[in-house]
Amino acid sequence: REEFHYRQERSIEYRIKLARMPERWSIDTFPFAKQPGVKASVIKGLARLDFIAQGTNLVFIGPTGVGKTGLAISILLKAIQNGYKGFFVKAQDLFDEMYASLADHATRKLIDRLARIDVIAIDEMGYLNLRPEQSNIFFKLMEERYNRKSTIITTNLEYDDWYGFLGNKHMVGALLDRLQHHCHTLRIDGPSLRAPGT
User: Fold this and answer.
1) How confident is the model over 93-113, as pLDDT tens digits?
2) d(Cα 89, Cα 191) in Å, to the nearest integer?
3) Helix and strand tally (H, E) in the chain?
């Protein structure tokens, strides 16, 4: 039994390392008392991970510092601890990698790799300077994950603002249609957790 638990813990640690999370937030350590804009009961409900089995997305919308990234990491960590494969990436890094994949004709390989991951957390989706090719690759990725795998997105933009940085109106409309079809959207209207005294 000890050998089994040891191997299980090693496996979880390995998957956590692969996920590239910058910090290790957890549901138990998130400062819900300091963030009235978030209901602990809602987050703990999501942490039961039913949304992953259903291929449902999570989108956290709110200003800087309210805890969006911490909540995304907390749920991603919970998923990994329960046997799912997860990956954390800053939106800018993801789009940079997508653009780089065009140079060596590795776009299909990149999409295939990301499309297989159970839960991807894309952090800080905001006003990025994107080329049409990057938007197209992102759309293709989300299309292939649609109804199959879960994506967690943190952003300071409302959905209507996505047209401003992703460009192509028809493509963004189709993207948002897929993203929101099976989706929990949580808007966090609360104080910054980075402010002095919090």
Assistant:
1) 999 999 999 999 999 999 999
2) 25
3) 9, 5
Residue identified by tokens 């390989």 is: 109
Q: Which residue has the tokens 């259903």?
A: 54
**DSSP of 120-187, one letter per residue?**
EEEEEE------HHHHHHHHHHHHHHTTTSEEEEEESS-GGGHHHHH--HHHHHHHHHHHHHTEEEEE
- The order of strands in the sheet holding 183-187 is 86-90, 119-125, 150-155, 57-61, 183-187
Residues in the chain predicted with pLDDT less than 70, given as ranges, are: 195-198
Q: Considering only CA atoms, which of 189, 157, 152 is closest in space to residue 73? A: 152
pTM above 0.85, yes or no: yes
pLDDT value at position 178? 92
Element (H, E) at 60: strand 57-61
Q: Which residue has the tokens 């808007």?
A: 187
Residue 190: phi and psi, rounded to 5, are -155, -175
Give the C-alpha separation, 196 to 198, whole Å: 6
Give the C-alpha distances (Å, rounded to integers) separating 172 from 45, 61, 99, 104, 136: 30, 18, 18, 26, 10
- The pLDDT, as a whole number, for residue 127 is 83
Q: Contact at 8 Å (CB) between 31 and 83?
A: no
101: number of Cβ within 10 Å: 18
What is the structure's pLDDT at 5?
A: 85
